[in-house]
Amino acid sequence: xxxxxxxxxxxxxxxxxxxxxxxxxxxxxxxxxxxxxxxxxxxxxxxxxxxxxxxxxxxxxxxxxxxxxxxxxxxxxxxxxxxxxxxxxxxxxxxxxxxxxxxxxxxxxxxxxxxxxxxxxxxxxxxxxxxxxxxxxxxxxxxxxxxxxxxxxxxxxxxxxxxxxxxxxxxxxxxxxxxxxxxxxxxxxxxxxxxxxxxxxxxxxxxxxxxxxxxxxxxxxxxxxxxxxxxxxxxxxxxxx
Length: 241
What we know:
Elements: E1 4-6, E2 27-33, E3 36-45, H1 48-53, E4 65-75, E5 77-79, E6 88-93, E7 99-106, E8 114-115, E9 120-127, H2 130-134, E10 141-143
């Protein structure tokens, strides 16, 4: 892979690696194009050795993989293809995370320097042909953890799980929705319904304006005999003198 060349440090030309490096763990990177979001899996080069070595001596790389160079502090940067055996597309990324320069199909093993001209925050290397394949252009937005602008579904908290409600022909009939909370109405008695429900009794008024209750008169064979209550007293005959 091209070795990163700082315009200010010529010593970077002196570093070389004789063995092919193993692939490092990758991180997600998304390029937002006019055709939609394109996702890549990229290794991150951050240490001086990683920045100088890049993808040198690699003989292959998975199709949608690549490498992003973490350039800090922001500065004009140069790349080359010395000791790099696979052709690459290079994307130079401005501090605002937009693509400022594209170099397609960089020649393997070439020592020609590819300059960014303007200060860049990162450089991305992809397999040659990916820029054309996905229609990536200058001005497209790059999303990666280096820019603190990568948000995925996994970053959002999952909604609280609700009750599992059975569905289908054998699911129980839905019941009424009963309000809950401090303002919910008081729960009344459950009144049986159906052919075996007891007959409904009379509605007895209640409250300060309800009529006075009449006495309960026992009835039946054991009830006491009714008392006479004549309308006027019985008069006895008066003897004559």
